[in-house]
């Protein structure tokens, strides 16, 4: 593609130009291609010089500076640059990359942050983002789309310090056959074992405490499987009925099970829930107008399906598909302000990092993708981890904190802005398992009902010690 062409501006459209380094990276080119695809935007020029010297001082709305040129008199919405930095200091020491797209100011140490994210580095505990550049390439287009939707304030917030995130290029991580082989060896040498735990407190009290008490962990879990993703069907006096993922090691099959668990963690009974799909996980429960529905994760089918519960027989029956053609991971529904919302990630390389959002007038759909998808890119707090809940008029969304590894902990996010054209949330609490716990390596689901909270817990077992696992 020829990036030296110049188009005459249309006064009713956003006028954008860009500078590229002498040898642009693939992600630089991808960023400009993404901008070209935004409705209402004209790319006037993409060059390896300061384009405004040629186009004129008043011609541009945005200059995307990917070359690190000296600052010019700013266009209407400023000069935009990317910055990258060490992500460990803002992730409890977890190795990763902090990425920001910002609008430059007269102070080189401060800038208006337009969009930001956090990407995990590859470690012995798991894969990392293969190309941070490729993941941030759509961000300029995203912010331009916000402007065309009327959210001008995105470019006019208070400047912030950027000294910790000022590298112009993202780090290049290891990749290729060698790292894939190391991943295979790592997976062979260890096994992830999940279980569930019960806490006799509601989620509001847990937030007030700012910490999760040690749960009563499941006693009697069979050694040939693990249980995870607990959702509360009912609290019945001295025990709870919990719908969970049931993973069998021998077959590597994900299914669902209904457990009756005592408040002391005793496994009283387990059964296969009749009518639910054989290969599924994350059995999200929706209660609507007195009826109970389950929307399990079945991303391999590229659909999100609904199953209705017959309270008398306890059986489930297929009700309908609500989303098709999208590999939805951990789909989580919320009704808010007269509209329905679906939070999920997309199966693939960034299913722990990129949050996708859909909206509809009814929970049955049809669902529309949010124009800013993915609305968030942050391995610390994106992937859903249970049902949303409301406290004091604020809505909170549990998410996985995968900064150190998949499912290392929980992030509780407070929704700040949720509309068909905008999304923003703040993380208000991080929950981690106790280092002294028998299940100290992670937790990635939390749900609460009837003054009881259920979570899951992870223990990474070494293969040569599996015969001693409980």
CATH topology of the largest domain: Tachylectin-2, Chain A
The number of domains: 2
CATH architecture of the largest domain: 5 Propeller
Rg over CA atoms, rounded to whole Å, is 24 Å
Residues in β-strands, percent = 35-45%
Class by alpha and beta content: mainly beta
Largest sheet: 7 strands, mixed
Separation, N- and C-terminal Cα atoms: 60 Å
Strand segment tally: 28
At the first level of CATH, the class of the largest domain is: Mainly Beta
- Output the strand order for the largest sheet: 2-1-3-4-5-6-7
Unreliable stretches, pLDDT < 50, 5 or more residues?
Answer: 1-9, 465-470
Overall geometric form:
globular
Helical proportion, percent range: 10-25%
Could you explain how this protein is built, in words?
This protein is mostly beta strands and 470 residues long. 11% of the residues lie in helices and 43% in strands. Strands 2-1-3-4-5-6-7 form a 7-stranded mixed beta sheet. The relative contact order is 0.11.
Summarize the topology:
Layout: E1 14-19, H1 26-36, E2 41-47, H2 52-55, E3 62-65, E4 79-86, E5 96-104, E6 110-120, H3 132-136, H4 139-148, E7 160-161, H5 177-189, E8 190-199, H6 203-209, E9 216-217, E10 225-236, E11 239-248, E12 253-262, E13 267-271, E14 281-288, E15 291-297, E16 303-309, E17 316-324, E18 328-336, E19 339-346, E20 354-360, E21 368-369, E22 376-377, E23 389-391, E24 394-401, E25 409-419, E26 422-431, E27 446-449, E28 452-462
Parallel strand pairs: 1-2, 1-3, 3-4
Antiparallel strand pairs: 4-5, 5-6, 6-7, 8-9, 8-28, 10-11, 11-12, 12-13, 14-15, 15-16, 16-17, 18-19, 19-20, 20-21, 20-22, 23-24, 24-25, 25-26, 27-28
Helix pairs in contact: 1-4
């Amino acid at each position: 593609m020829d990036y030296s062409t110049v188009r005459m501006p249309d006064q009713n459209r956003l006028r954008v130009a860009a500078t590229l380094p002498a040898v642009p990276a693939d992600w630089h080119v991808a960023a400009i291609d993404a901008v070209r695809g935004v409705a209402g935007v004209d790319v006037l020029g993409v060059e390896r010089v300061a384009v405004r010297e040629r186009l004129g001082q008043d011609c541009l709305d945005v200059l995307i500076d990917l070359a690190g040129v000296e600052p010019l008199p700013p266009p209407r919405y400023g000069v935009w640059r990317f910055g990258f930095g060490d992500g460990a200091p803002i992730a409890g020491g977890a190795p990763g990359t902090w990425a920001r797209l910002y609008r430059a100011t007269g102070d080189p140490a401060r800038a208006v942050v337009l969009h930001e994210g956090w990407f995990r580095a590859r470690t012995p505990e798991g894969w990392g983002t293969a190309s941070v550049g490729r993941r941030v390439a759509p961000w300029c287009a995203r912010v331009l789309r916000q402007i065309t939707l009327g959210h001008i304030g995105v470019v006019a917030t208070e400047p912030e310090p950027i000294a910790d995130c000022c590298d112009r290029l993202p780090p290049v991580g290891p990749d290729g056959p060698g790292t894939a082989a190391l991943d295979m060896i790592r997976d062979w040498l260890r096994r992830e074992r999940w279980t569930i735990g019960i806490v006799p407190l509601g989620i509001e009290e847990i937030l007030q405490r700012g910490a999760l008490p040690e749960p009563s962990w499941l006693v009697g879990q069979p050694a040939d499987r693990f249980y995870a993703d607990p959702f509360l069907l009912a609290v019945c006096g001295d025990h709870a009925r919990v719908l969970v993922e049931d993973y069998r090691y021998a077959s590597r099959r994900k299914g669902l099970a209904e457990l009756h668990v005592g408040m002391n963690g005793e496994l009283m009974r387990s059964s296969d829930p009749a009518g639910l799909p054989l290969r599924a996980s994350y059995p999200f429960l929706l209660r609507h107008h007195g009826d109970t529905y389950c929307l399990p994760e079945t991303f391999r089918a590229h659909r999100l399906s609904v199953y209705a519960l017959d309270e008398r027989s306890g059986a489930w029956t297929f009700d309908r598909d609500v989303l098709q053609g999208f590999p939805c991971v951990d789909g989580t529904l919320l009704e808010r302000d007269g509209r329905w919302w679906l939070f999920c990630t997309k199966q693939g390389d960034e299913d722990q990092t990129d949050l996708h959002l859909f909206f509809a007038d009814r929970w049955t759909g049809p669902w529309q993708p949010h124009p800013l998808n993915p609305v968030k890119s942050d391995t610390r707090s994106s992937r859903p981890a249970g049902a949303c809940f409301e406290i004091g008029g604020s809505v909170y969304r549990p998410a996985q904190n995968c900064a150190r590894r998949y499912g290392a902990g929980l992030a509780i996010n407070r929704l700040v802005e949720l509309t068909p054209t905008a999304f923003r949330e703040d993380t208000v609490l991080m929950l981690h398992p106790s280092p002294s716990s028998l299940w100290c390596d992670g937790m990635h689901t939390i749900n609460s009902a009837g003054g009881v909270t259920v979570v899951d817990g992870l223990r990474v077992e070494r293969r040569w010690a599996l015969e001693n696992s409980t």
